[in-house]
Specification:
The protein is an alpha+beta fold. 22% of the residues lie in helices and 31% in strands. It is built from eleven helices and 26 strands. The strands form seven sheets. It has an eleven-stranded antiparallel beta sheet with strand order 14-15-16-17-18-19-20-10-11-12-21, sandwiched between helices. The protein has a four-stranded antiparallel beta sheet with strand order 5-4-7-8.
């Protein structure tokens, strides 16, 4: 969850505009409704809707609204919200309801245990901690949504799907399936959250972490008594749950305050909220050298649902606000200072919903670098409209709809077909996907001048590739995204240049640009061969596509070795012409003409 601005690594830039992608949608039937409190009619945000076996589910949005697909209108659904009576409906019942009204559980204050002190509260939390220690680890699909605002202006929205490894104590792994991003600048900067999923994996309800404050579920019984004051909260859920508030005995200590709900029958954790309005330990870092974090106010909430002999994580919510204040340090890299004498107030909220256990996504066929954050990973993925139509996430709230209109008019949206608009953005500098009407070239930006500006260094005189084998650092892969859509298998693919793994030293010459594009074209031809092989298959399976992808990736590595050894060899002029002629025949692209390459006979 490192809080950091978008920083462009200007190694490559697109020579011709992005190729427009066709969009086609398959109609689906879903149930839509709203869940409210009875009798107040107030919406219940993040209420849980699941099938009776718990295999599939969704959440309501901030306005209590949801959309959920059912196989049959006779299917039964369970609708629950902490502190309310669970309700059961068939799909057909929900069609005829304007609102789904949940009844609060009756207060049972007579069951409060009367003792000479409140030591029993410490023992309840300690017993709950024991159940967390042995919590089973399971895999689930998950949907993440995060919205950031600054100065009351929406500046970022992320929506992404993952396979996640979770237990009652932690989210251990998040493996990206697909994602999309909406952004708008504040002044002349983009503010984005990098490494958010890495930060989530540091949230452990049992073990202490260097990234966050401590809390009661991480402490032994003796430590809990020394560090915390506990209070039994009379609430509408007292009939089934213990509801306990906790606060550290010492002010300004690295301990969260908050609330916890524990099941009376088995001491399972149902919900815990962690709060601190002046967080001392956190994973947030500003990468702007001219700004630093002044304070952070953070709240985290874990909500669990029932499973066989255990609890499962239903969703993790977070919200925070922070303030960035100017520093006196020098601005680096040509970035201009924003609001030099003022602070930037940033607020954000998000949710991770684990909604389909054991039935996981097929993960994209692609080798990510360990240094790739989610933004970089999303920039590799080819757009798949079928995937986004089949996966609904959470219904947009009215506030979010207004945000999307703002992003469309003042920023950009990537992979949001329901909000058509211009997709030119800072992402045009990231990981180009091959297209016939765009070429790429190296771009070198000289470090910042004393006046704060930067400049592009002009090309040097024409020469051939040097002998230190720079092509070893050119990273091209075929990305394949495979999905089950009903009874069929759907896939999309793209040839992608990984600019973060492609390293080369300036100065760059016209021939450098030409050979880079020729190799990129040859990789695209291998992708097309892979597709032709798959088109001949009687039936597509994940295993078949994976095998074809492995073969194509091997051929790309072989072509890389052969191509660059030939265009640097003794007959380099002849071989460059030969490869250029081959690419022109196959793709109708003349790279030598495009880059004005003239060779000696």
């Amino acid at each position: 969850m490192n809080f950091s601005p978008a920083r462009l690594k200007p190694l490559f830039i697109l020579w011709i505009a992005y190729l427009a992608l066709p969009i086609y949608l398959d109609a689906q039937t879903v149930l839509t409704n709203r869940i409210v409190d009875d009798p107040s009619s107030e919406p219940l945000p993040y209420a849980t809707i699941t099938t009776l076996d718990g295999s599939r589910g969704t959440l309501t949005n901030e306005d209590g609204e949801f959309a959920f697909e059912v196989d049959d209108l006779s299917d039964s659904l369970s609708i629950s919200f902490l502190g309310y009576q669970t309700a059961f409906f068939s799909g057909r019942d929900l069609i005829d309801l304007d609102d789904i009204r949940l009844l609060p559980e009756a207060a049972q204050l007579t069951d409060v245990i009367v003792t000479a002190d409140d030591d029993y509260l410490y023992r309840i939390i300690h017993q709950c901690r024991k159940t967390i220690r042995n919590a089973p680890v399971e895999w689930s699909r998950a949907f993440l949504q995060h919205v950031t605002k600054a100065e009351e202006q929406p500046i970022e929205m992320i929506q992404a799907y993952y396979n996640v490894s979770v237990s009652q104590k932690e989210v251990d792994h998040l493996i990206l399936k697909n994602g999309r991003v909406a952004m708008a600048p504040l002044g002349d900067r983009y503010f984005i959250n990098l490494g958010m999923t890495q930060a989530i994996t540091r949230l452990d309800l049992f073990a202490k972490s260097e990234s966050f404050n401590f809390h009661p579920l991480q402490l032994s019984l003796g430590q809990l008594r020394r560090r915390y004051e506990l209070e039994r909260k009379p609430s509408l859920s007292n009939a089934q749950l213990y509801h306990i508030a906790f606060r550290p005995k010492e002010e300004n200590s690295p301990y969260f305050s908050g609330e916890i709900w524990i099941d009376k029958s088995n001491y399972f954790l149902r919900k815990v909220i962690l709060r601190d309005n002046s967080l001392e330990r956190h994973p947030f870092v500003s990468v702007f050298p001219d700004q630093e974090i002044k304070y952070i106010d953070l709240e985290l909430a874990f909500t669990f649902s029932n499973a066989v002999n255990s609890q499962r994580l239903s969703h993790l919510q977070w919200q925070y606000e922070l303030e960035l204040q100017p520093t006196n340090r020098q601005v680096l890299g040509g970035m201009q200072r924003l609001h030099e004498q003022t602070n930037n107030h940033v607020t954000a909220s998000g949710i991770l919903h684990c909604y389909q256990y054991r039935d996981l996504f097929w993960e994209p066929l692609f080798e990510y670098s360990s240094e790739h954050n989610d933004y970089r990973k999303i920039s590799f993925l080819p757009y798949n409209p079928d995937f986004w139509e089949a996966n609904h996430g959470l219904v947009y709230s009215q506030e979010q709809l207004s945000y999307m209109a703002y992003f469309r008019d003042h920023g950009f949206l990537i992979n949001y077909s329901e909000f058509p608009g211009e997709e030119e953005s800072i992402f045009q500098f990231n990981n180009p996907h091959w297209a016939s009407d765009k070429r790429i070239f190296y771009k070198y930006i000289r470090p910042q001048n004393p006046d704060g500006t930067s400049e592009i260094v002009p090309s040097a005189p024409l020469s051939f590739w040097p002998g230190e084998q720079p092509e070893d650092d050119i990273a091209v892969q075929i990305m394949v995204d495979i999905n089950r859509l009903g009874d069929s298998v759907n896939y999309t693919s793209s040839t992608v240049l990984d600019i973060f793994e492609t390293k080369s030293e300036p100065p760059y010459e016209d021939l450098d640009h030409c050979l880079l594009n020729m190799y990129f074209d040859l990789c695209e031809l291998e992708r097309r061969k892979m597709i032709a092989e798959l088109d001949q298959a009687a039936e597509l399976t994940y295993e078949l596509i994976e095998e074809a992808h492995q073969s194509a990736s091997y051929r790309i590595r072989e072509i890389k070795r052969d191509f660059f050894s030939q265009v640097r060899g003794a007959r380099k002029e002849r071989m460059i012409r030969k490869w250029n002629k081959f690419i022109k025949q196959e793709l109708d692209i003349d790279n030598m003409e495009t880059f004005k390459i003239e060779l000696n006979n």
